[in-house]
Amino acid sequence: MHDWSETDFDWEGLNNAGIELETFCRRYGRIGMHTKEKWGTLRAYTYFCCYPILHSLIYPGYVYSQFPAWLWHADLRLLSPCLNLLMPLIRKWQYFIYRKGYERVVKHYPHLEDEILSQVDYYELLKKGSEIEKKYWEIVRKNNDTDT
After folding, report:
1. What is the pLDDT of residue 141?
2. Does the pTM of the predicted model rise above 0.85?
3. Which of 3, 8, 117, 137 has the most CB atoms less than 10 A away?
4. What string of DSSP letters covers 45-110?
5. Which residues of the chain have pLDDT under 70?
6. Helices 87-108 and 11-29 sit at what angle, rounded to 10 degrees?
7. By the 8 A CB rule, do 30 and 49 touch?
8. Are 107 and 126 in contact (CB under 8 A)?
9. Which of 83, 80, 104, 87 has its CA nearest to residue 27?
C-alpha cells in the first residue's frame, strides 16, 4: 500500500503497467479490462468472453450493445448458440493471453511486482497462482478471521 504523498514511488510506472496490460489483453485476447491505481496497487477489472459471443469478441468490455438491434438479436439467438461450441477454445486462448499479459508486465516493471500482483482478479490463472495466494491473500483471510 502506498500513499500519494510518497514521492519516491514510481506512480507513472504503475500507470503505464496498467495501460500496457489492458492494451495487450484487449488486442490479442479480446479481453475486456479496465485498469486503475488504488492505494498504490494495480486494479484490473477483467471481463472474459460471454453471451452474446460475437459482440463480446468485437467489443470487449462493453456492457451495452454497440450493435444495431437486428444484429444484437441475431447474435443472441442465432450466432451465439453456434459459437458456443467454440467457447472452450476461446476461453483457453483468453486465459493464455491473460497469463502472458501479467508475465509481460511484471517482466517489464520488476520493481513493481508486488503492486501489480497483490490485487489480481484471477490469480489462479497465473503460473504463480498458489504463490500469489499465499503471499497476498493469506493476510486478507487472517484479517477477516480476526474481525468476526
Report:
1. 54
2. no
3. 117
4. EEE---SSHHHHHHSTT-SS--S-HHHHHHIIIIIHHHHGGGHHHHHHHHHHHHHHHHHHHHHH-G
5. 137-148
6. 160
7. yes
8. no
9. 104
